[in-house]
Structure formats: C-alpha cells, structure tokens
Amino acid sequence: MKRRLLLVSNSTLHGSGYLDHCQQHISSFFGKNVKRVLFVPYALHDRDAYTKTARNKFKTLGYEVDGIHEAADPVEAVRKAEGIFIGGGNTFRLLKSLYDNNVVAEIRKRVMEDGVPYMGSSAGTNVATISINTTNDMPIVFPPTFSAIGLVPFNINPHYLDPDPNSRHMGETREQRITQYHEEPDTPSVLGLREGSLLLVEGNKATLLGSTKARLFTSGKPSVEYDPGSDLSFLLSDAR
Amino acid sequence: MKRRLLLVSNSTLHGSGYLDHCQQHISSFFGKNVKRVLFVPYALHDRDAYTKTARNKFKTLGYEVDGIHEAADPVEAVRKAEGIFIGGGNTFRLLKSLYDNNVVAEIRKRVMEDGVPYMGSSAGTNVATISINTTNDMPIVFPPTFSAIGLVPFNINPHYLDPDPNSRHMGETREQRITQYHEEPDTPSVLGLREGSLLLVEGNKATLLGSTKARLFTSGKPSVEYDPGSDLSFLLSDAR
Ligand SMILES: [Ca+2]
Ligand SMILES: [Ca+2]
Predict the structure, then answer these.
(1) What is the ipTM of this complex?
(2) Who is most buried in A94, A185, B73, B213, counting CB within 10 A?
C-alpha cells in the first residue's frame, strides 16, 4: 500500500492567506521529487481563476501547477501526474465533474497502486474518502452516486464546527447532522476536522496534524476528541 | 388550479414550542372542514415518536393525525387524505422515503388536482418545491433524484441565515451557497425563508406570512428583500 494523502479541512484559515496555514506540511508532503502538481479545480465555477490562485501559491513553494481542465485528455493527465491536488468549493459539483470526466477510477489507481501523492482541501478532502455523505455543501447538482474516490474507508467532515451555545438558530448542529448519518445502517466513522486540522496518511499510518483537535464520531459509540499528533491509523482498517 | 400550500421555514422558533409560532396560520389553513391530517414523518429516524409529537400538537388545534407509516398502503393513505403535513428533519432521507414509498406522484395529484391542503415544515417545505437543490441538510442517503414533488416551480431555502460579520468560520455563507447554485444553468429562483417566515399559496396567489422578511435570489439579478404580507404570486408563473 503506497498511499500518501494530505487531507486538509480548509484551504484558508481566518486572517491568513490561501493555504498559508498548512504550507510547511504541503512542502514536506510533496517533497523534492515532485516538480509539477496536477490541480483539479472542478469544485468552483471559474476553473481558470481557481487554477491561477493555486498556481500562484504553489509557485512560492517551488512547484509548477497544471490545471486538469487545461489538458486535452483529463484521464491521460492523471496517468502522467507526479502529484495531485483537488481544491475545495462545492462537493456535489466536484464529484459530478470527476465522474463526468471519467477520472475517479484513474485517480484511485494512481494513488493506491502507484503512490502518487494526493492532497485534498475541504471538498477535495470529502471526495478522497469513502463517500460525500458528510459534506457540508448544498446539493446544487446531482452526481451519479455519493460514493467517492475511496482512498480511505471512513468519512471526513471538513470545517467541523462545535455547537454554539448562544445561537438562536434552530437548524441542526453539525453533531446532530452526523448523528442522523449514523442512524442509517452500516455507516462508517466520521472524522470531524476542525478548521486548522489536517490528516496525513502514509500507507497504513494516519496522523492528525495542525493546530486544533479533531472529533471522531462512530455509530453507536460516544464521540472522542483527538489532539494534534494523534495516531489515527486504526481508522484505516477499522472504519465501523 | 386548486393548490393550497402552507410552507413553513422551521417547525420550532427559538424559545417557543413545536409549531407554536405558526399555530394560528395552521388553524386557518386547514380550517373547519378538515378533521384528520395525514402526517409524513419520513425525515426523522423515529417515525412513531415524531408522529406522537405532531399528533399532540395538532390535537390542541382540533385535528386528528394519522402517521403515513402506520397505514398498510401509503399510496392509499394519500388517496384518502383530507389534509397533508410533511415534517422537517433530513431532506435527503425524506425525499428517498417518499420515492421508496411511491407517494410523490400521488401527493402531487391530490394537491394540484383535488385541492387537498399541503403543509410543509423545513424539509417538508423543501420537498414541496421543484427540487431539493437548496436544502441545508447533510446528504446522509442517496435519493434517486433531487427533483421533488414540484407543487411550486421555484426553490426555497428554509432556515435562511444572514452572514455573520463576526464569524471566523470559513465555510461558505448561505448566500454564497445559493450563488453557487445560480452559477449552474437554468436554475430557478430561490426564496430564502428566515426562521419565523411562512409562504401561503392559494391557487395562483402566494403571500409571505410570519414575523420576518424573506430574501429572494434570482440567477443573474441582485437579491431582493420582501416584508411579511408581500404578494409573491409572480414566483408561481415566472420562476426564472
Ligand atoms: Ca464547500
Ligand atoms: Ca433539516
């Protein structure tokens, strides 16, 4: 299992610039051997503008960026990629575009079999997991399935948000939403990654990185908090 | 067109009990001729407990409640219904159950052709519209389509929430989410119903009721605020 993943909760932390809060993790994740990163901007409407944003940031870290939408054949672009970064935006739009462009299976193969490093942020983290069932996004388009690339066998909830005791709003809290998910049969664990959190996966080892704790929800069990630095490798084999 | 709809943003307003804030509207909507209301509890996991909650409240208003899940044949229950109330919870679970139980077309027929009054709250309001594309809920199950009962030709966003200028959270605001929806082609208007708002539809007349303004989002146009009492009938013919 050659899998290497950097799954980021959010691309921008309040008060800092695009990917600033995790740039050292990005540099050590892609390392010196990767020169070019294939960027997937499908989650936002303006793919050119989004690719420019990613390109400008990655340039400061020493990497060239190719937008997958700039390639004549997106599957071929995945086949040749040295590294992959899928950015955030709307998860439904992103997943539908991944299927429309026939790249889901090819990305899975490249990451799981060839060890191509995969970085995801927000929606790009959702689609790396078993399914998009725990995205926060609005279902603005209908994808052919909620099953995703499946690089890990559990779910992630990015931008995880604690209940606000002062709120007068009566919509479900994030915890209530995840609890509703776990009322459904055979639903895997959900790792709530607060803004500022990242999960690094290397083969069968998973480590929580970043500046905040993460909260793990498992069906039928009390939820558990994990500090940055925690070993979460058990999630890779024991998702239920 | 006999359609009569009472589309409520939220079942419970902060600081008051279940359906308290709209109980006078409920009484005048179902009136004296309706004796029994068919309740659809599909949006929550515990259908019996949910039906009990609705039954207790409607009893204080003079109506008996039948849970659709208690009927041997849910389609037959819709055929015999004097009035329908679909409660809130998870919109994806609700829509999937409506399709699993084959009641979508029958509810549409009863409301549009026979004039059976339809009340929806939150998720029950989402499914009354053209589609569930503008629900706030988590996609915990995969419905066969996002197309809904289609009693009105536009979308509603229940629990509409204004951006919080003090928030440090970087997830999309509600307005940004609806804007992303309108980046997609041929998307209808979205009526953002704040908590405390209701929309009453009688034939081809639509009136905003309740205690708060509503915000209307139309693709390619600036959004517009409407006061309680506003005539929104134009939405019934001119959804784009
Ligand atoms: Ca998003
Ligand atoms: Ca809900």
Answers:
(1) 0.96
(2) A94
Task: Note the helical H segments in A61-172.
Answer: 74-80, 91-100, 104-114, 123-126
Rounded to a whole number of angstroms, the distance from the CA of B125 to the nearest CA of chain A is 14
Give me the residues paired with residue B198 across strands.
Answer: B8, B209
Judged by a CB distance cut-off of 8 A, whether residue A194 touches chain B is: no
Spans of all domains in chain A: 4-237
pLDDT value at residue B239 = 46
Amino acid letter, residue B47: R
Chain A interface includes B166 (CB < 8 A): no
Element (H, E) at B120: strand B118-121
Contacts of A89 in chain B (CB under 8 A): 180
State the Cα–Cα distance between residues B188 and B133, nearest whole angstrom: 10
A38 DSSP β-pair partners? A66, A84
Q: What percent of chain B is modeled with pLDDT above 70? A: 99
Distances (CA, A) of B231 to B2, B112, B130, B205, B207: 18, 21, 20, 7, 5
Residue A142: list chain B partners with CB under 8 A: 145-146
pLDDT tens, position by position, B107-154 = 999 999 999 999 999 999 999 999 999 999 999 999 999 999 999 999
Q: Which residues contact A14 (CB under 8 A, 6 or more apart)?
A: A195, B168, B169, B170
Whether the CB of B49 is below 8 Å from some CB of chain A: the reply is no
Looking at residue B238, what is its pLDDT? Answer: 59
Contact criterion met (CB < 8 Å) for A170 and B181: no
Average pLDDT in the B10-24 region?
Answer: 91
Q: Which ligand is nearest to the CA of B92?
A: 2
Low-confidence ranges of chain A (pLDDT < 70): 238-240
Quote the radius of gyration of chain A (alpha carbons, Å). Answer: 17
Q: Which CATH superfamily is domain B4-237 in?
A: Class I glutamine amidotransferase (GATase) domain (3.40.50.880)
